[in-house]
Structure formats: C-alpha cells, structure tokens
Design brief:
single chain; 501 residues; mainly alpha; 21 helices; 0% strand
C-alpha cells in the first residue's frame, strides 16, 4: 500500500478511533487502486442525480405560467407541494443510506422520479399535478445526499475535487430542460392574452413532463441494469462487515484491471488492538449503525469543532436554500411579468432568455473546480466570494429598465450561483465523516428543503411583480458568504477521511 500520506481533515478526537483507523487502511487501498474505469462510471451515474435535482425542482417554475393560465390558482402553491416532497426525500433517503446502505437508495430514487414524473404529464387538474410532483420530489430529494456520499466513498482522495465538477450535470440539466421548454411552452401554450385556456390549447407543459419523465426512467434503468454499484466499503466497515468491505475493494481493483494488497486481517487487527484499551461493548458492530437511531446525528456533534462545523453548514444550506428557491422557482414568472412591464414579455422571449441563463451557468462548475484548489482561497474562500458577488448582482438586477438589462444581470448571477452550489455540495460532503456522511448530507439537505418550503409561503404574501423577492434573496446570499468564512475546517489539500498522495 502507498506509504505517502497527507494530513487528514479530522484529528483523532473528532471521530471514532477504531473507525478512523480502519478508514485509513481502506483509503490507502482505494488510493493504490487509483482513479479508474469504475470511478469514472460512478461519476457519470452519480451525475444523473445532480441532473434530476436540477431539472425537477426547476420545472415547477418553468411550467408555472401556462399552468396558472389553465388551472387559475395562486402560483406558489405548486412550488410548496414540490418542496414538501423534496424535504421528505432528503430525510428518508439521506438517513436511509446510513441504515440500509447506499446501493438501494442510489437505485430507487431516480426510478420513483421517472415513474411519477411521467404520470404527472397526464394530470387533469391542479390537485393531481401537485400530488404527483410531490411524489416525484420525494425521489429527487434523496439524489444528491446519497450520490455525493457514494462518490466520495469510492473515489481516491487525489480526485475528490471532482465532486465540484459534478455540478456540471446540474447545469446541463437546466440547459436541457430550458431548451425543451422554449419551443414546447412557446408553441403549445395558450396565448398570454387569452381569456380562457383549455387543455387542448395548452399541451406544452404536458409534453415537457412526458419527455422529462421518460428521460429520468432511462437514466434509472442505466443505473440499475448497465452499471452495478457496489456497496460502500466505508459503510460496511461502519457496521462491522469488514470481510465484505475487503471483498468489494478487490472487486473494484479487478474492474480497474489492477490489484490491492488489502486483507481482512488489516482491519481485524485494528479492532483487536483497540479492544485492549476499552471494553468491546463500547463499540457495537451492528446495533447502533444498522437501525435508525440518533447515533449518526450525535457523531456530527461529537466534538466542539465538529459541532460548530455542522451547525454552520446547516445554516449555510438553509439560508442559500431559502434564497435560491425564492428566486429561481419563480424566475420564469418574474421574467415574464417584468418583461410585460417592458412590453416584451412574450412566452418566446421569456423561455429564450431562460435558455441563455442556463448556458451561462455551465462554465461555473468548471471554474469552481479550479477555484477550490487555489491556496489561501480554497473551498471557504470560493464559497464566500461567489456568494458575495451573486448577491451583489441580484441587487443590481433591480436597476434594469429593459429585458436586455434584466437578462444581463441575471446571467452574471446565474454564473456565480452555480459556483455556490458546486462548492457547497463539495465542502459539505468532504467535511462529514464517511460513516455518517449520508446522515450529514441528509441533515443539511433537509434544512435546505425546509427553508425551500418557506420560500413559496413567503411568495404567497410578497408581490412577485415587485423586486421584494430579489432583495430578500440577495441579502440572504451575501450573509451566507460571510458565514462560510467562519467554518472551522478547510478541506483543500486534506483528505476526507482518506489518505492522499
């Protein structure tokens, strides 16, 4: 195994010493195997989760205008239903991945989204549509918490920065759905000036849901049938199944056409050494990690430094979740209503502008990959700078006096917003210990979803035709950037419970 090491993210008092020592051994083996075919396949298949997390929450905003025209309702109610589903999904699948394993959660979440998303296209009324999109969101809500844990559990520490690049799937998802919505909504929707709107004249949003549901099903089938995800060795070690963990390490090595010297004796020896210093009952192998208990949550607050870190991450996700949901969920509606004030608020221009915004967001993921590795800036600095700039440009967008100006300000905001999420996903997954990573991801993701539920409630009482949602979102994002600087851990150059070359 590799003798080269770099500093771990944690000190020995932060996590369970037996688990910590075993993870060091596993990480050395994964680093020896290197970044191979198996890890690149995971990058693609886990990217499907980022794709789903992008397109499905975003679609409620894209289809809002034609649905309001047909069903005559207060727009934020649809976003409220979707965000409640996202909250449930984040809790169930995130915690579940630490209880029954990563594999089941990884395979089932996209399947749920695809089946119910396809069904949502046939909705005859608002209640049916909202209910089906809520169930879709239950599946979607678990994707990123689970998929980020899967990726970091199996990728060498030397390549864990690729988690920041994973957000390119998020950007491509928004681009694809915007490209589909542009012709479908513009050409198969009721006229904005029509007094009544019937189903036959308003099929565009239904076509969009049919296409997206079918595409999500295809992606889920690829995960299940074309790629065999092996269970996380770190999860298995966390519940005392050392032999299975070693077997999987060897399977990954064989898949990558390489070898590893790891044996189960390397892990059992650690357990025996520690048992000489304390009673074995203190470290149960199954009961506390194989059922749904608070053991994983407690581990995230085990020390003062870890508790501060977890609390700040929860606050960051909540604040940014509220700000981005409040703004992004109603962006097409805002573009249309503000455009109407400028006498150019047609559906064609609205969705054309949405495509432009989606294109601008793609380079943000690649810039994030570069920025998080810069000395003295790292993850925290990149998150703080991108948040400050995104908030500033949101404020600047309120000065727009034409659709072109509004589009320009939103392009810059979208660029930095994608950097924010790329870094936020990365730093959260890196900081949480691997055996509790699913729960940690679930905790921050659930907080984001809780505040996401509050966003449409705020929108119900705020005038979306004014700049109020913009001012609220901008101030919250800037505040989040300041909080990022207070994080006690900087993962740049350190291993997330891993050894690095």
């Amino acid at each position: 195994m590799a003798a080269l090491q770099r500093e771990d993210l944690y000190d020995d008092a932060t996590v369970d010493p037996v688990y910590h020592a075993k993870t060091r051994v596993l990480n050395a083996a994964i680093q020896d195997i290197g970044m191979g075919r198996y890890q690149y396949y995971i990058f693609v298949c886990a990217g499907f989760g980022w794709f789903a997390d992008s397109v499905w929450p975003f679609i409620t905003g894209l289809i809002l205008t034609p649905i309001i025209a047909e069903f005559k309702f207060n727009g934020p109610f649809l976003s409220l239903a979707a965000n409640v589903g996202l909250l449930v999904g984040a809790v169930v699948w995130g915690l579940g991945s630490d209880v029954w394993g990563r594999k089941w959660s990884f395979n089932v979440t996209l399947l749920i989204a695809g089946v119910f998303g396809l069904s949502a296209g046939g909705s005859p009324n608002l209640l049916t549509l909202a209910s089906l999109l809520a169930v879709v969101s239950v599946g979607v809500g678990g994707n990123v918490p689970v998929d980020s844990a899967v990726f970091l559990d199996l990728v060498p520490a030397s390549h864990q920065y690729l988690l920041a690049v994973m957000s390119v799937w998020w950007s491509l998802g928004q681009l694809l759905i915007s490209l589909l919505a542009w012709p479908l909504i513009a050409n198969f929707s009721c006229s904005t000036s029509a007094a009544t709107c019937s189903k036959v004249d308003n099929m565009g949003w239904r076509y969009l849901l049919f296409i997206l549901g079918a595409l999500t099903l295809v992606l889920s089938f690829i995960r299940v049938f074309a790629f065999n995800l092996l269970e996380s060795p770190r999860f298995l070690v966390g519940i005392g199944r050392d032999q299975e963990a070693v077997d999987i390490i060897h399977q990954i090595a064989a898949y990558n056409s390489t070898t590893t010297t790891l044996t189960v004796e390397d892990l059992v020896g650690i357990e025996e050494k520690q048992s000489n210093e304390r009673e074995r009952e203190i470290r149960p192998l199954l009961s506390k990690t194989s059922i749904l208990t608070t053991v994983h949550v407690k581990a995230l607050f085990a020390t003062r430094k870890m508790a501060i870190s977890t609390s700040l991450l929860v606050a960051l996700w909540g604040i940014i979740g509220l700000a981005s949901t409040l703004y992004n969920s109603f962006l097409p509606f805002l573009l249309a209503s503000r455009g109407a004030q400028f006498n150019d608020g047609s559906l064609y221009l609205t969705y054309r502008n949405q495509v432009i915004l989606s294109v601008i967001g793609v380079p943000g993921a690649f810039l994030a990959r570069w920025a998080v590795k810069i000395p003295y800036i790292g993850r925290k600095g990149t998150l703080a700078l991108s948040s400050g700039l995104a908030g500033a440009f949101l404020f600047a967008s309120t000065t727009a006096r034409s659709s072109v100006q509004l589009l320009g300000w939103n392009c810059v905001y979208t660029f930095f917003s994608n950097i924010i999420y790329a870094v936020l996903y990365t730093i959260s997954a890196e900081i949480f210990p691997a055996k509790d990573r699913g729960t940690g991801n679930a905790l921050v993701s659930s907080t984001s979803r809780i505040f996401g539920v509050l966003a449409p409630v705020i929108a119900l009482y705020a005038n979306l035709a004014t700049a109020v949602p913009v001012y609220i979102s901008g101030a919250l994002i800037i505040f989040a950037g300041l909080l990022a600087l207070c994080l006690p851990f900087e993962p740049r150059g350190k291993a997330s419970m891993q050894l690095r070359r």
